Amino acid sequence: DYKKEVKKQTGEVIKIVRSDRGGEYYGRFTEMGQREGPLARFIKEKGIVPQYTMPGSAYQNSVAERRNRTLKEMVRAMLNYSTLPLTLWGEALRTAVHIQNRVPTKVVPTTPYELWTGRKPSLFYMHIWGCPAEAKLYNSYIKAFDPKTTSGFFIGYPERSKGYRFYCPSHTPHIVETDNAKFLEDGSFGLDALQNLTFEEIQDTKCRPDKENVNVYDYV
């Protein structure tokens, strides 16, 4: 429940929700006026004031529309730069949001992350989206001569854990999470570079933070 999370984490209450007239927000417009959808009814029941833009008037919600355009441009660039399938656009979008929440703007010099948590964000753990990587996955049943790592591509950060998400085409499931990996960010975005990587290099390069007091939600 996002409303409860806002109250618990910030001490603030949601007073106004502004959106366009999409069916998921507004419901439907009939001759009798607005036929409220589930979200519109929820907002009304909680005493929150809804504000809806007029049809075709994106300028009335310019802040959200501008941010949406920025996110789309980021996702397009991330997918074009990588060799990953377009079906991973959702992972790219999630990572773009993760980044945007940790960078300031000209209008608001404080990052959204700091406004929400009261702490300055750390960027030391970030990597290039779509770069090849060798991920060491936890497996309590691994045998002595089984492969120690899985080849894949970096696609983002877990929501509630410190670590990374990888797309591994040869592994089932294809998307995995771990905090132990070697990233190839030198421009060698090809599978040949993955094959030349030794396990010793991976053992020496873990992506765990250097600081012991990093909060688990620093990566949210």
Entry keywords:
220 residues; alpha+beta; five-stranded antiparallel β-sheet; two-stranded parallel ribbon; 7 helices; 9 strands; 30% helix; elongated; disordered C terminus; RNaseH-like_sf; RNaseH_sf; SH3_retrovirus; nucleic acid binding; Integrase catalytic domain-containing protein
How would you sum up this structure, described in words?
This protein has 220 residues and is an alpha+beta fold. The protein has seven helices and nine strands, in the order αβββαβαααβββββαα. The chain folds into three domains: 2-56, no CATH class; 62-117, no CATH class; 132-219, no CATH class. Helices cover 30% and strands 17% of the residues. A five-stranded antiparallel β-sheet has the order 8-7-6-5-9. Strand 2 (27-30) and strand 3 (33-36) form a beta hairpin. Helix 3 (62-81) packs across helix 4. The longest helix has 20 residues, at 62-81. 17% of the residues are buried.
Query: Would you report the number of β strands?
Result: 9
- Report mean pLDDT, rounded to a whole number: 83
Quick one: biggest sheet?
5 strands, antiparallel
Fraction of residues in H or I helices: 25-40%
Largest sheet strand order: 8-7-6-5-9
> What letter string, H or E per element, gives the SSE order?
HEEEHEHHHEEEEEHH
Count of distinct structural domains: 3
GO molecular function: nucleic acid binding
InterPro entries: Integrase_cat-core, Retrotran_Ty1/copia-like, RNaseH-like_sf, RNaseH_sf, SH3_retrovirus
Domain Integrase catalytic: 1-120
Protein name: Integrase catalytic domain-containing protein
